[in-house]
Every structure is written in structure tokens, then in C-alpha cells.
Amino acid sequence: MEIVIIGSGIIGLLSALTLTDAGYKVTILARDLPKDDSLDWASPWAGAAIYPHPDTGGQPLQVETFKYYWALAHRDPTSSVQVVKATEYYDDRENDDSIWYKTLVPRYRRIIAKDLPSGAKIGFTYQSMTVNPAVFLPWIKKELESRGVQFVRKTVKSLREAEHITGCRVIVHASGLGASGLANDKNMVAIRGQTMFVETDFDETSLHQGSHYTYVIPRMYTGGAIMGGVSQPGNLSREVARELRSDILHRTRKLCEGSFDSVDLQRDVKRDIVGFRPYRKGGFRLEVEGNVVHAYGFGGLGYAFSYGAAQKVREMVDSLVRKQL
Ligand SMILES: Cc1cc2nc3c(=O)[nH]c(=O)nc-3n(C[C@H](O)[C@H](O)[C@H](O)COP(=O)(O)OP(=O)(O)OC[C@H]3O[C@@H](n4cnc5c(N)ncnc54)[C@H](O)[C@@H]3O)c2cc1C
Ligand SMILES: *[C@@H]1O[C@H](CO)[C@@H](O)[C@H](O)[C@H]1NC(C)=O
After folding, report:
1. Which among 39, 189, 235 is the best mutation to test ligand 2's pocket, defined by most ligand atoms within 8 Å of the CB?
2. Where along the chain is D-dopa bound (predicted)?
């Protein structure tokens, strides 16, 4: 049985992985493909860190994803997936009751109050993973090609067009922000992000959430780290905003007290990055509609949900195929 996937971002790619695991033949149609540097898709521009999220729901999907990347980091580090120490701070809660993943992640540990940076109410550390998209996306594409997956560069105007081109009777729709057109989804919103790639030895990942959203994510194979973050819903500006660079550095210095005091914006920032997160009001969509399996709207958490979402895609494809037989 042959399945067509629209989209070659992290969601489409890992869906191809779970589908080929289950014995399906897969063709991917996509406008943008791994190694493309365009701002029209999100996946190359992520940090990316695997941070489970306390408040979004979809916990089983995040658990499966955590386990997938954990195993991959140990099985094949050339994938760019690496285990790192993660630190999270929050200023919008008094205790860690909402941190449901404290019993999932290895080496979870609360940070005592006197060691918290100013402004943080709680903090904790554990072992998590980072992914370097510039390495991982081509790596997974190669793995899929060795399983016979065909990649076709194609912009489709409708879901039907994908069916006509390939003759496939089951369609997986993973087009990210493309869903506003292809699924006529009025709830899609692009959330603008801006980060900078900084030369540094810092090799842990840290995150602050609550009144601001700030993070540092080391990138394997590079000698540097991504610093962010910025979250601007509906802002489609593709230009780097110079004024945000010093704001980001100021916040990451507070986040990792002492670690970036000598970072110089002129000298050490090797690249500024702008990207658009495919956010969906009301939450991500994993749902069957006719002969289409929708899988999009993961906002700023596409990597953290990716493998769990892809497993769910395979289950939905199985149920459609059983119905059609
Ligand atoms: C600055 C930044 C930092 C981030 N950091 C993290 C992080 O640390 N951790 C994390 O989990 N997530 C992070 N994210 C979010 C993550 O990048 C996204 O959630 C994820 O990449 C979405 O993947 P996707 O496959 O749904 O969509 P995309 O990567 O956007 O892929 C969509 C695919 O559909 C194709 N497509 C669209 N329309 C059409 C069409 N009409 N015809 C054919 N093909 C089409 C595109 O070409 C592309 O191949 C970050 C995002 C940004 C911008
Ligand atoms: C979009 O964001 C940039 C960078 O912060 C800012 O300069 C610009 O004014 C914003 N545009 C809109 C329409 O809000």
C-alpha cells in the first residue's frame, strides 16, 4: 500500500519513518526539502531542544518523542542528537506540581531557592537532548531514501492534487503553515522567532518560561549555541531586527549567570536567524478527515512532539487502510 505525505518538515519526515517501519511504501511531496535554506518552512530554524512542556497537553506524544530521541542519541550520535544537561526556570508558578515529566526524564533535580537566578521562582535540571536540524534533516532523509522513500519537490495547490499526482488513496497532510491554504484552516498563525548563533563552549541547554521566553541550545558539530527567544504572533517580517540581538544577549546572560559575560555581539554572533512557527489556535491537529490524515500546528514544539505525532499518524493511516480494504 502506498501513502503520500505532503510536507518534508520534521513531522512529515518522522511520519515517513513510522510508516515505512510498518511496511508502507511512501512518497513525500514538498515545496521545501532538507538542506533548503528558505524561510517558507520551520524545521531548519529550530534550536532544537527536546523540552517536554508542562501546560500544552499531549503528554503521551511527548513521552514517546523523548524516548525516541534518547535512544537515537545513544544508538547513532552522527544523527546530531546528543544528550545534554537541561535547566528550566519559571517565574509563573510556585512549585513543580505541573512538571508532569519529572518522573520521566533522567536525573531530575530541583534547584534550591538560594541558587536560583534573580526573577526565577522555581528551577530544576535533568538530562534531555538537543538536535542540530542542519545535520538531522539530511540524515533522516538519507535514512528514508535507503528505505525506498521517494522525495519529490512539488508545490501542491490542494490535497486532491497530491492524490492525482501519485495515485495514492491515503494522504498524510503535514504542511505546517501551509495548512491555512491546503486545509483552509483559519486557526493557523505564524509566530515569528528570532535567534542568533553564537560561538561559545557552553554545552548545556537552559530555558526560562513565564513572563519571558529565553533559551540557549548548544549545536553539536558546530562549536556554538543558539540563543533566543522571541515570540511575535502574526508578524511576518523576514528581516533581522538588530535591536533584538542585545535584548536576547541581555536575557541569556541573566539566564546563565556568568557564562556569557565575555560574549561580544560584533565578534561572536556568526549568524542571525528568523523563523516562523506553525502555531494553531486551539492546539495541534492530529485527525482523520475523509482519506486525509492531518498532522500540523505544533507551533514552537514540533521537535518535542515529532515522534509521538508520527506514531499517531501511523495508527490513523492503519485505520483508514482497514476501512478502504
Ligand atoms: C526560531 C525557532 C526555534 C524553534 N525551536 C524549537 C525547539 O527548540 N524545539 C522544538 O520542538 N521546536 C522548535 N521550533 C518549532 C519547530 O521548528 C516546528 O514546530 C516544526 O519545525 C514544524 O514542523 P512541520 O513539519 O510541522 O512544518 P515545517 O517544517 O514548516 O514543514 C512544512 C513542510 O510542508 C511543505 N509545504 C507547505 N505547503 C506546501 C504546499 N502547498 N505544497 C507542497 N509542500 C508544502 C513545506 O515545504 C515543508 O516541507 C522552533 C521554531 C522556530 C521558528
Ligand atoms: C515585526 O517584528 C519586528 C522585529 O521585532 C519589528 O521591527 C516590526 O515592527 C514588527 N512588525 C509588526 C507589523 O508588528
Report:
1. 235
2. 215, 277, 300
Domains parsed from the chain with CATH numbers: 1-48+132-187+281-325 (3.40.50.720)
**Going by CA atoms, what residue is nearest to atom 13 of ligand 2?**
235
238 Cβ closer than 6 Å to some ligand 2 atom: no
| pLDDT tens by residue, the chain, 325 residues | 899 999 999 999 999 999 999 999 999 999 999 999 999 999 999 999 999 999 999 999 999 999 999 999 999 999 999 999 999 999 999 999 999 999 999 999 999 999 999 899 999 999 999 999 999 999 999 999 999 999 999 999 999 999 999 999 999 999 999 999 999 999 999 999 999 999 999 999 999 999 999 999 999 999 999 999 999 999 999 999 999 999 999 999 999 998 999 999 999 999 999 999 999 999 999 999 999 999 999 999 999 999 999 999 999 999 999 988 6
Give the distance (Å) from ligand 2 centre to CA of residue 247: 14
Q: Is the CB of 247 under 6 A from ligand 2?
A: no
Q: Work out the number of other CB atoms within 10 angstroms of the CB of residue 189.
A: 17
Q: Which atom of ligand 2 is nearest to the CA of 241?
A: 4
What is the phi/psi pair of residue 43, to 5°?
-60, -35
